[in-house]
Write a structure and sequence with these properties.
Elements: E1 5-9, E2 19-21, E3 25-28, E4 38-42, H1 43-70, H2 79-83, H3 89-109, H4 113-126, H5 131-143, H6 147-156, H7 165-177, H8 181-191, H9 198-214, H10 218-227, H11 232-244, H12 248-259, H13 266-280, H14 283-296, H15 302-313, H16 317-331, H17 335-348, H18 351-363, H19 369-382, H20 385-394, H21 403-421, H22 425-437, H23 442-454, H24 458-471, H25 476-490, H26 508-520, H27 524-536, H28 548-562, H29 565-576, H30 583-595, H31 599-612, H32 617-626
Parallel strand pairs: 1-4
Antiparallel strand pairs: 2-3, 3-4
Length: 638
C-alpha cells in the first residue's frame, strides 16, 4: 500500500483500465512496472451501489412491516400498503384501526372482555366511526361500573350521520339511568330529520316526548305534542301531557273527540280515559271504561290489572278489592298474571291489595319468593324496617336465572335495614361498600340516601351521595342532596355528654364468653347483633379499644360463614385501619379459610392486605403461592 495513490473517477473501466471490482473500485498501473500502484474509486459506482443497497433495505423493511401486519388475522393491509407507507399513512392507520376493531369484536363475542376492550380502544383511536365497536366498548364500561365513561364514549360517536337505533337505544338507556333526560331530548331533536324511515322517525318522536315528560317538563311535552300534528300518536301525547299538567277537562275533551274516530288505537285511548276519569273522580264512568277496555281483549290480563291499579290509586278500596277478586278468578291460574297485578299495586302503594296477591299465590301453591320480594320492597319504601327484615329472612330464592339479581337486591336491602336501625361503623360501612362494589340503578342510590337521611345517618348519607355522584355525575337531584347534606351536617349540634350507666354492657370476660357460645352454635346473627350493640354503646366499654381487632376478626369469620364477601372485605379494611401490625393476624385468618376449603375468601383477605400495605412481603409470598400468574401483576387499587 506504500506509495499507492487514491483517485476518484466518475466512470470505471471506461475511464481507467485496471482490475475493477463490482464497478466500485479498481487497481491500475500508475507507475510503469508496478501494476497495482494506483487505486481508483468510482463515484458513479458508489452512488449506484448505495442506491441499490438503500432500495434493498427499504424492500426488506416493507416486507418486515407487512409480516408484522399479517400477524393480525383480521388485517386488511397489503404489501403495496407497506411499500408505499410514507404516502399512505392515513389510509394505513384507518386500516390498522379496522383490524384492531375486528379482532376486538371477535374477542368481545367470545367473552374475553378485557382483551377486547384494549383492542377496541386502539381501534377507535384510528377509526372512530365504527358504531358497533363503540357500543361494545360502552357495554364493557358499564360492566366495569364506569357509567360516565360509557356515556362519554357514546356521546363522542354522535357525528353528522345517523348512528342507528341500537346505538341510540344504548345511549338513551344509559342517559335515562342517570335521569339525564335533556341529553335524550337533544339527540332526538338532532337526528329527527336524518332518520332513514318513518318507523325510525316515530320512534325518535316517542323517545323525545317521553324524555320531556320524565324530565319534569310537561309543558314542553305538550308543545312538542302539538307540533306533531293530528295523528293518533300526537293526540295520545297531548292527552298524556295534559294529564301530567292536571288539566283533566282538556284531556277528556281530546279523548272524547278521539273516541269517535279511534280504530286500532282504541285500547290506548281507553287506558288514558280510565286514568283521566279516576283523577277527575268520576268513578262510575271509570268503571265502565275499564269494562270496555277488558271487552276489547278479554283473554289478556293487562287491561283488568290496569283497572285494579287505577281504582286503588283513586282510593276506591271497595271497588278495587272486587276488581282484584274478579281478576284473580279470571287470570289467577298463572303466577305471572298474579305478579303482574302485584307490581302495579306496589307501584301505587296499596299494601292491603298487595298482601292479597301474596296470599292468593300461597293459596294456589305458587313459588312466592318474587311476591315476597315485592312486598319487602314496599315495606322498605315505607320505612317499615322490622316488617321488611322479617320478610327478607323468610324468603327462599329458587335457583333460576333471576336468582343472582334477587340475591343481590336482598343483600342490599338487609344492609340498608341494618344501617337504618343500628348506629356505628359495623352497620354503616357494609352498605356503603356494597354500593361501591357494583353498578346500581339510580333508584337504589336514591332509596338508600333517602332512608339514611330519614333516620338521621347523615355521615352515611354523605358517603352514599358521593358514590352516586361518581356513577351519575350530572344528576341534578344528587347535586342538590349533597348541598343539603353539607348544610345539615354543618348545623348538626355536638353530641351531648352521656352519663355513665352501670352494667349496661357485660364485662369483657362475660361478653366474649357469650360470643364464643354463639359462634360455636353458628348463630351468626346473634354474634353480629352483640357486636353492633357493644360498638354503639355510649360511653364505650373501657376494654373495647384493646379488643377492637378481635371483634373485627369475629365479624370476618361471621361474614365468611354466611358467604357475604362484601361484608368480609369491609371488616378486613376496617381492621387494617389499626395499623400494619394487624396484617399478620389477617394473613393467618386467610390461611385458615383456605384450610377450610374457601380459598376465595382467603385470597380476598390477602388482597385487602396488599391494598392497604402494598409492600407487605408475607402477603406477596402467599399470593404468589396461591395464584402464581396473578402475583406478577400489582395489587388492585383500593
Amino acid at each position: 500500500m506504500k506509495g499507492r495513490r487514491v483517485k476518484f473517477v466518475w466512470g470505471a473501466s471506461q475511464v481507467i483500465r485496471g482490475r475493477w471490482h463490482l464497478g466500485l473500485f479498481g487497481f491500475y498501473e500508475r507507475q510503469h512496472g508496478r501494476p497495482d500502484s494506483g487505486l481508483a474509486i468510482s463515484v458513479r459506482g458508489l452512488l449506484v451501489g448505495g442506491a441499490a443497497l438503500a432500495l434493498a433495505g427499504y424492500l426488506a423493511a416493507a416486507a418486515a412491516l407487512f409480516w408484522i401486519w399479517q400477524r393480525n388475522g383480521f388485517s386488511e393491509l397489503r404489501f403495496a400498503d407497506a411499500l408505499f407507507y410514507p404516502m399512505r399513512r392515513s389510509e394505513v392507520s384507518a386500516a390498522k384501526g379496522r383490524a384492531f376493531l375486528a379482532r376486538g369484536k371477535a374477542l368481545f363475542d367470545a367473552g374475553k372482555y378485557v382483551d377486547a376492550a384494549n383492542l377496541l380502544r386502539y381501534g377507535l383511536a384510528r377509526h372512530p366511526r365504527d358504531f358497533v365497536a363503540r357500543r361494545q366498548l360502552a357495554q364493557f364500561y358499564l360492566m366495569a361500573n364506569r357509567r360516565p365513561a360509557a356515556l362519554t364514549l357514546l356521546a363522542e360517536g354522535l357525528g353528522p350521520a345517523y348512528p342507528g337505533r341500537p346505538y341510540l337505544e344504548l345511549y338513551f338507556e344509559i342517559a335515562a339511568q342517570g335521569e339525564d333526560y335533556a341529553r335524550v331530548a337533544a339527540v332526538c331533536t338532532r337526528y329527527a330529520g336524518m332518520a332513514p324511515s318513518e318507523t325510525e322517525r316515530r320512534w325518535l318522536a316517542d323517545r323525545h316526548f317521553t324524555a320531556l315528560l320524565d324530565g319534569g317538563q310537561p309543558a314542553a311535552a305538550l308543545t312538542f305534542a302539538v307540533s306533531e300534528g293530528e295523528t293518533a300518536r300526537a293526540r295520545h301525547h297531548r292527552a298524556q301531557a295534559l294529564l301530567a299538567l292536571q288539566r283533566i277537562p282538556e284531556a277528556l275533551e281530546i279523548l272524547d273527540a278521539w273516541e269517535e274516530q279511534a280504530g286500532p288505537e282504541r285500547a290506548a285511548l281507553l287506558r288514558l280515559r280510565v286514568r283521566a276519569l279516576g283523577q277527575a273522580g268520576r268513578i262510575e264512568e271509570m268503571s265502565e271504561a275499564i269494562t270496555e277496555l277488558h271487552r276489547l281483549a278479554p283473554a289478556e290480563p293487562d287491561a283488568l290489572a290496569y283497572g285494579v291499579a287505577q281504582l286503588a290509586e283513586a282510593q276506591r278500596d271497595d271497588l278495587a278489592l272486587r276488581a282484584l277478586d274478579d281478576y284473580l278468578f279470571r287470570f289467577g291460574g298463572s303466577p305471572a298474571n298474579i305478579f303482574l297485578v302485584a307490581e302495579l299495586l306496589a307501584g301505587v302503594g296499596h299494601e292491603a291489595l298487595l298482601q292479597r296477591c301474596v296470599t292468593a299465590a300461597m293459596d294456589r301453591g305458587y313459588p312466592i319468593s318474587r311476591f315476597q320480594l315485592q312486598l319487602a320492597q314496599f315495606h322498605l319504601q315505607q320505612g317499615e324496617w322490622g316488617a321488611a327484615a322479617t320478610l327478607l329472612e323468610q324468603i327462599v330464592l329458587p335457583p333460576d336465572r333471576n336468582a343472582a339479581a334477587a340475591q343481590a337486591w336482598r343483600g342490599w336491602a338487609q344492609r340498608l335495614i341494618a344501617a337504618a336501625t343500628t348506629q356505628g361503623d359495623a352497620a354503616q360501612l357494609p352498605l356503603v361498600e356494597l354500593l361501591r362494589a357494583r353498578p346500581w340503578p339510580l333508584r337504589i342510590i336514591r332509596q338508600s340516601l333517602e332512608a339514611m337521611m330519614r333516620e338521621e345517618r347523615l355521615d352515611t348519607a354523605r358517603e352514599i351521595a358521593a358514590v352516586g355522584r361518581r356513577a351519575y355525575p350530572d344528576n341534578a337531584w344528587l347535586q342538590a342532596k349533597e348541598v343539603e347534606l353539607a348544610e345539615l351536617i354543618a348545623a348538626r349540634p355536638a353530641d351531648p355528654p352521656t352519663a355513665h350507666t352501670a352494667a349496661a354492657v357485660p364485662g369483657e370476660m362475660a361478653f366474649f364468653s357469650e360470643l364464643e357460645q354463639a359462634i360455636d352454635a353458628n348463630h351468626w346473627d346473634d354474634v353480629e347483633r352483640a357486636i353492633r350493640n357493644v360498638r354503639a354503646h355510649r360511653p364505650p366499654p373501657e376494654w373495647l379499644g384493646r379488643r377492637d381487632a378481635d371483634l373485627w376478626f369475629v365479624l370476618m369469620r361471621s361474614s365468611q360463614a354466611r358467604g357475604d364477601r362484601v361484608a368480609l372485605m369491609a371488616a378486613a379494611r376496617m381492621n387494617l385501619l389499626g395499623g400494619p401490625n394487624r396484617a399478620g393476624g389477617l394473613l393467618e385468618l386467610s390461611r385458615n379459610f383456605d384450610a377450610a376449603g374457601d380459598r376465595d375468601s382467603g385470597l380476598l383477605l390477602v388482597n385487602a392486605i396488599l391494598q392497604r400495605f402494598p409492600d407487605y412481603a408475607p402477603a406477596k409470598r402467599q399470593l404468589a403461592q396461591w395464584t402464581p400468574i396473578a402475583a406478577e401483576a400489582p395489587a388492585p387499587a383500593p
